[in-house]
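Comment thread on ticket #2218

A.B. wrote:
> Attaching the input chain for the structure job we discussed in standup.
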Amino acid sequence: MLNDFFRLFFPAKNQPVSDIGSVESSGKDSQPLSIVVDERKASPVAVICQSELDYISRCVQDYPNIETGGDLFGFWTNEGVPVVLYAIGPGREANHQQAFFVQDVNYFVKIASFLEDKYQLSHMGEWHSHHQLGLARPSGHDANTIFNGLRNVPLRRMLLCIANYRQGRVSVNPYMFHESDMFHYVDASWRILPVQSPYRTLIDNDLKDVLIHPEALSASLGEFRTLSAPQPKNEVSRLGGEHWMRRKGGVDLLKRMIGIISLSCPEDKVAPQWDEFGNIYIVFGDRTIKFTESFPVDAPVMMTEGQTSGREVPWEFAPKGQEDETSAILETFEKWIQTNLNSNNKDYDDSSAIQ
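C.D. wrote:
> Ran it. Output below, let me know if you need it in another format.
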């Protein structure tokens, strides 16, 4: 059975990725894409069995309003593509919080050791949910945790999957990390194998007295990045026509705000992120600044490790109707960010506000 499985989906070492089997896609008229995978870099492709996506979806449905997570097992191809053949959810002693998840270590070690010893399946990475927070990508804390793992273990590569739960549906997308670049990760695309993993039933039976399965009985899946789905020419094109980033000078405004943060926090790597709802994020250290589509009318939001401060720093921007308000926005943002950093989001009171 396993030989048939591998012959079906991995027939020839040098065969183009887009030619191996068929690929499910959310795009109606999308065509397969040729993807070059270089073992020396993070793979833009991740492979997973449909059964394991379904399993993750069921786990997320058990915790719709709080973070949950688990671990991923399988193998790496010669080109560095991860092939996920078995997924687990949280153990009984896992720590579920509003803005973070910590796996039950004893549960993980027991399962990982068994899978390595009996089936030679490697621990490839982990998955966790951002439930309904709106951040559909790894947070700054997530990325730093993975990079530290690559440095300290050491590992060459790691797969991190972020799940979101919205309107009763779960989306799960892969992000690839590689030792060749310790500052950036790659938004990978799934190649979803439309089968049950050949290991699912075997391992479930072997570890029936150990495994903790989700209570949700069926998967409820949303949209995914898939190998043949058409990709926009640039990230800005994903945003709505009225989004502030689409307006004249919008991209330059974001770059200049990143520059302000870089000068204020020279020890932190500063990087922009975004989600499918038009929210823009600037991530630096363990902090994240969120900008909604209605920025600069609406204030940005400062978060530390995914949690917002209990005390808000005033956002003192007043639209004046001039054609180019970039200078006014930058001045307001610089005051706002300095007040946030100086108060450390903890001890702020109204008397400390910059006038």
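A.B. wrote:
> Thanks. Noting for the ticket: The chain has two domains: 2-206, 235-342.
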